[in-house]
Amino acid sequence: MKRNDLKPATIAAQAAGAIDPASGGVVPPIQPSTTYVRDRDYELVNSDNVYLRSHNEPVRLGEAILSELEGAEATQLFPSGMAAIAAVFRTVPNRGRVIVQSGIYWGTTKWIRDFCTRRDITLVEVEASDAALLRRACAEAPAQLVFVETPSNPWLKTVDIHAARESADLSDATLVVDSTAATPLLSKPLALGADIVMHSATKAINGHSDVLGGVLSTRNKTSPVWEAICIDRNEAGAVMGPFEAWLLVRGMRTLPLRVERMSRNAMKIAEHLAQHPHVEQVFYPGLPSHPGFELAQAQMQGGYGFLLSVLVRGGREAALATAGRLNLFHRATSLGGVESLVEHRHTIEPDTGIPENLLRLSIGIEDVDDLIADLNQALLG
Ligand code: PLP
């Protein structure tokens, strides 16, 4: 059987075929050495390895698995999701122009705004879930990057990636899709026309809330932007260490299983909360009432992800009291882990238009009936 005939669950469970050739172990080894030896004739003992910043075997393995899952020509791992985003934006020349979706993960928006100010880059923020608005922004002038996040955090808006590709072409821009909330399983942005797909691997890819990581995968490894990203990572040194990469590979072995369970749980919880008298609104792309539902049906497969937001009836106090009464959901930022989390986003980003009664839920792999019972008792007070 050819490797590219294999399904994601097989690729992930077998860590893309990793066997330790030295010991025969079915688990890949960790080699923490920062440098690699040469023989007496000054030949490298292993010609693939000179120095850890450039040559890190657990990182290479993680990248190989992610490339197979994404259908990518190449992948680069970074020490955090933000480091991956920064690596993309550092390819934009001073006084360039970038088009970025508004209302996405606040940390991304905040860093991009600061970066663009420092580098005199024109930043156009646009509601990219409206394909016509994105198209108009792209048609106005050339740009180097179009950056979208779908589904978005915390609004769960969906962006039409195929339409975004056509728009990006109008401004001759590289299209980058942050697909963190969709994971490499539920959506294939590269097949839909993205040039680069980005993930915070800190979230579902690792899935155990114990590794920070970022991913960029490309459909064209000879593009100048990709080559610049690779050179910059190598020379500027935003690299993941071998222990983190090893943990990440271990986490990824169960990625398809976790994503399947988390998405199923999230769907049931979204349906339940949509009928709940103490909930004003639920944002989840798997609900037919969601404005992006049809698009999500078309460009996601196997579920709609683990992330949802709700507006609690009764305003800020009711939302905070609900969060405070939850017993199983941990009150903590982040998403995508095996344990369910709840976050009052307004506390984190008070001046960005997030409603004070919004709670963001990251649904884990627990028994869904336990999670629903916990939400019920917390909402009813
Ligand atoms: N993109 C999204 C959608 C996120 O939710 C996050 C973090 O929450 C990031 C990027 C940044 O990733 P990291 O925290 O790994 O730097």
Report on the architecture of this protein:
The N and C termini lie far apart (56 Å). With 381 residues, the protein is of the alpha/beta class. A 7-stranded mixed sheet has the order 1-7-6-5-4-2-3, sandwiched between helices. The model has no long low-confidence stretch (mean pLDDT 97). The chain has helices spanning 8-13, 57-70, 81-89, 106-119, 131-140, 161-170, 183-186, 224-236, 242-252, 255-274, 293-299, 315-325, 345-348, 368-380, and strands at 74-78, 97-101, 122-126, 145-149, 174-178, 196-200, 214-218, 279-283, 307-312, 330-331, 341-344, 358-362. The chain folds into 2 domains: 7-252, Type I PLP-dependent aspartate aminotransferase-like (Major domain) (Aspartate Aminotransferase, domain 2), CATH 3.40.640; 255-380, Aspartate Aminotransferase, domain 1 (Alpha-Beta Complex). The chain is built from 14 helices and 12 strands. The site of pyridoxal-5'-phosphate has 14 residues, from helix 3 and helix 4.
Quick one: CATH class of the largest domain?
A: Alpha Beta
Give a quick account of the main beta sheet: strands, pairing sense, barrel closure.
Answer: 7 strands, mixed
Shape: globular
> What is the level-2 CATH architecture name of the largest domain?
3-Layer(aba) Sandwich
Enumerate the distinct ligands.
pyridoxal-5'-phosphate
Average pLDDT confidence is 97
Beta-strand portion reads 5-15%
**Unreliable stretches covering 5 or more consecutive residues:** none
H/E topology pattern: HHEHEHEHEHEHEEHHHEHEHEEHEH
